[in-house]
Amino acid sequence: MAGWALTEGEYSKISLSDSDLSRIFASIFSSSSKNTASYKFGFIKSLLDNLYNVDSSLCLSFDTVFSTFAESYWNLILKYNLNQQSGKNAKITTILKGLFDSFGYDEVIPFESLSNEQKLEIIKNVRVECSKYVIGALFEDSLQSFYSFSKKTKIIRFNPAAYQFMCKNKVMLEKVNYFEWSRFLEKVNSEELTQAISTKLDESTLRSDLSMYRQILYEEFECHTCFYCGKSLKSKIHVDHFIPWSFVKEDRLYNFVLACPHCNTQKNNKLAPEKFVNGIVERNKVLIKESSRIDSIYRIDTNSYTDKTINNLYGYAIMNGFRSWDVSEFI
Question: Which end of the chain has fewer surrounding CB within 10 Å, N or C?
Answer without folding.
Answer: N
